[in-house]
Protein: Response regulator
Amino acid sequence: MINELSKIKRRILLIDDEEDIRELLQMSLEMSSRWEVLTAGSGLEGLEMARTYQPDAIILDVIMPDMDGPMTFEQLQQDPETRNIPVILLTAKAKADEQPRYTNLGVKAVLSKLINPLSFAEQLSNILEWPSGG
Structure:
C-alpha cells in the first residue's frame, strides 16, 4: 500500500510575485520529487488556479502587492472548493514575533524563504506528512 501511495503524483501550487523565487522553487521541487509544480504570480491568479487545478498543497508568499498571502489564504478558506487544501506560507521576514500571527491563521506551516533547494521537497513532505518524494 505504501508503494502505491508513493507513486501518486502530487500537484503543488506555488504563489509568489517574485519570478526568480518561483523558478528556483519550481526547479528545486521538480528535480527532487515527482511533483507537478504550478506557479502563479499573484494572489488573484493563485485563487483562480487553486479552483481550477485543485492542488494537493499550496506554497504561498506572505508579502505580495495587491493581495498579500494572508488575504489570499483567507479567500482560499472561504471557498468550499479550496478550503481543505493545505497551505504553507513563505516569508522573507523571519521575525519570531510574526510567526504566531501567521500560524494562528490555520496554515500548515510558516517557512523562511531562505530554504535549502536540495532538501526543500523533503521538508515539504515532512510538513504535509506525505511519503518521501511523493
